[in-house]
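Input record, target 12 of the design panel.
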């Protein structure tokens, strides 16, 4: 597998811009995750977990983030139990403490995989 991730299309400035209106604690999580992404090596066919994959011809450089258009729903039984489903930007406004607790707790058990770190950053 060729090293197709020599220069990321996404950079630290993009992560900073993406999180510009977010609380400082979330900006720190995103920045640390992107730093991990940049430091971790690109997997090769010799990397554990990637050995049986054929990635020839697949672009591994992360694209710039785009606004997603999707509808979030929760089952009525879940809503009755108090489950709230919102995009992250809205949840930060109405339920910041809950979002912070969930994201900070999740950080301890996250994988250090290159693309997991990218997903966490973006």
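The sequence produced for target 12 reads:
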């Amino acid at each position: 597998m060729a090293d197709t991730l020599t220069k990321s299309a996404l950079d630290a400035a993009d992560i900073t811009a993406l999180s510009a209106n977010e609380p400082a604690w979330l900006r720190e999580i995103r920045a640390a995750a992107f730093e991990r992404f940049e430091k971790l090596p690109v997997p090769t066919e010799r990397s554990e977990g990637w050995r049986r994959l054929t990635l020839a011809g697949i672009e591994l450089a992360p694209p710039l983030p785009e606004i997603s258009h999707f509808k979030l729903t929760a089952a009525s039984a879940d809503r009755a139990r108090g489950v709230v489903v919102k995009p992250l930007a809205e949840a930060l406004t109405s339920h910041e403490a809950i979002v912070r607790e969930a994201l900070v707790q999740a950080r301890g058990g996250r994988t250090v995989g290159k693309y997991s770190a990218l997903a966490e950053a973006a």
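The CA atoms of residues 11 and 76 lie 40 Å apart.
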